[in-house]
Structure formats: structure tokens, C-alpha cells
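Hi, here's the filled form for the chain we discussed.

Project: internal
Contact: R.S.
Residues: 263
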Amino acid sequence: MFVFSSSFAALLSLFIVVHLRLISSLPNPGNEHGSQTTLTNTTIEFGGPGVGAAPLFRKKPFENGPGPQIYPSGQTQPSPPALPRYFAWDRMLHIDKGNVVVVNVQTGEPVYTISQSPEDHRTTIVSNQHGDQLLSVNLKKTARRGHKFRYNTPSGVHYIIDPRGARTDRWYMVMEGKQAETFTYFRGHSKNAGNVYFQGHNKTKIASINFVKSLDKTHWKSDSLSGVKDIVTLEITQPTEIGDQYFIGLWALVKRRIDHYGL
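And the returned structure, exactly as it came back:
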């Protein structure tokens, strides 16, 4: 009786093991929906010692194939190149008569507006087309001609003027935060146009400001600058996460200071 029981138990155990192995070799019904794990990168071999042996599962090294690329820890995918950031608006900046529209030079679409605060005519505001205020800067009464001055903004950017006596003044745009940067605006001697450079980075040019009489409007669906004879353009020439509004605000502040104190 003991021998029979032992034999029966052994046969039952063998049946269970073979049955489980056969089930594991069946196709996975959940793969289409991603709910179960697939046998990725696995070779299934049949045979081996004995007749009807269970399948053997052998892992093989990763190989190139379809699917997303895997980047090692610490390595990131390269960012796509940024689109050109090229803007234009009326350089006379008559914001006392209404908002000044800033357009994308490639498309002609309005992207920003420059205005003055209804509560304080000394405050210049740059907004997007949804009406969100992106930057405000005040032409302080305490600033004096011929003296250095720092214009602070609620956005964490500061504009600093260094008059430099008889020489052309220098303007600095100081960005606070995790990506602190300082930029220098070398404007022309007799006009509010010139280039903006990183203060470090071997003085790499980041933006250029120019006066032009006309623009190529071939691809414009509508002309928001119709009738504007004196145009200023801003072209950001280096990839940067610094918002467009800070460069526009820099130019607008310099313009309003020149209008107030002269060149």
C-alpha cells in the first residue's frame, strides 16, 4: 500500500510539473493590451534529453530592433532645434496712444503687445495675445541722468544702466534664479539698436536689434504693421530659455528712458 501511494504521489507531481510548463509555453493573451509580461528577447527551444521534454527558455543578449531607443542613465535625448525667434514692431513706440503690436516676422501673426499701465504712465507692460502680463518695468522718478541705476521688475529680472560719461551707455539685463545670467546690450551711439551679448561665454551674441524700413510680408496672412514706416526688429540668434518678453522689455525701457532724458 505504501509503495502504491508513493508511486501515485510521484506520478501526480510529475503531471502537475508538466502541465504547468505547457501552460507557460502558450501564447500570452494579454499582450495586445499591455496587461501582462511578454517573453522579451527570449529563445524557446524544444527537445533536450528525453522524449516530450518541456521547452527550455534561454535569455539572449539585447539586440538592435524596433521599439523606443534606450538611453543610459544620465544621458538625455538631444533637444530639437528651436524655431527662429524673430519679431518686429513700431519703433516710435507711441504707447501713450494705444498698444503697440509685436509680430512674428516669419508669419506676421501678432504675438505680444507693449503698453503702458493705466494706473501709472511710467510703467511699461509686455503681454501675450491672451492678455496675460508677462513683464512690467517702471521708469523710476528716482533715476537721474548721468548716474548708474537699477530697474527692478516683479519677474526677477533687473535692467541696469551704466551711462559711462561721454561714451555710449551700456545696459545690462540680469536674470535671477537657477539659470542666472547677465547680458550686455551694446546699443549704437545715436540710436536704440545694436547687439545683446552673454556677459560670459566669450561674449557670444544672443540677439540683435535693428532699424528697418520694410519687411518681407510674402507669407503674412494679415498685416498688423500696415502703415508703420519705422520698424525695429529683434532677432534672438542663440538657443536660450530666456523669454522673448525680457528682450522686448529691455528695448522698450531704453527707448522710454531716451525719450525722457535724451541720448
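Let me know if anything looks off before we file it.
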